[in-house]
Fold this sequence. Notes:
Order of helices and strands: HEEEEEEEEEH
Helix content: 25-40%
Distance between the termini: 93 Å
Oligomer: single chain
Strand order of the largest sheet: 2-9-8-4-6
CATH architecture of the largest domain: Sandwich
Number of domains: 2
CATH topology of the largest domain: Immunoglobulin-like
Shape: elongated
Radius of gyration: 30 Å
Amino acid sequence: MKTALIPAAFLILMIPCICSVNLGISPEKLEFSGSQNEIICNNFSITGDAPVLFEGYVRWSKSESKNLLDYNLISSDLKINVTIPELINPGEYQLCISSKNSGAYYGALLYKMQDSSYGIGTWVELKIRGNSADSKISFISGRIVQKINQKQAGTILMPFLTAALLFFLILILKIKKKKFRMLQ
């Protein structure tokens, strides 16, 4: 009996201690839009069931991607200024960004639990317009053209939908007419 207890005790001691941590960050995507050198801010919140410190940083990618390995650029590489709290507890905070260059940038705001491998993150999308009057005009006219194209898509499809509806109504009437003749 003693020999049976030794392997059982050994197995129980070999079971690792399992720990779980409830972490969250919201929103799932932070979207920023503004002009060159304009400081743009958005709020985010971190939730957790443990009073721990989180270390924060932002990484950038050359293109939009859902693979974190693609986010290997730091803010200074892209001439982007980022202001985030670096060591925080769960709570609500603000991320502020400005950029010297215009363009679309894709980032990941990441927070790692201090002295741990646990981490959380959210996507960051930054769209910066140039400061010149021409870029503002093209931005406005681009939106107007986009809205016109959306309205035209509906007007182009409407005749096809009407024709399809008429075709099915005529088909149903012919089928009913044949059934009525067969009953007589």
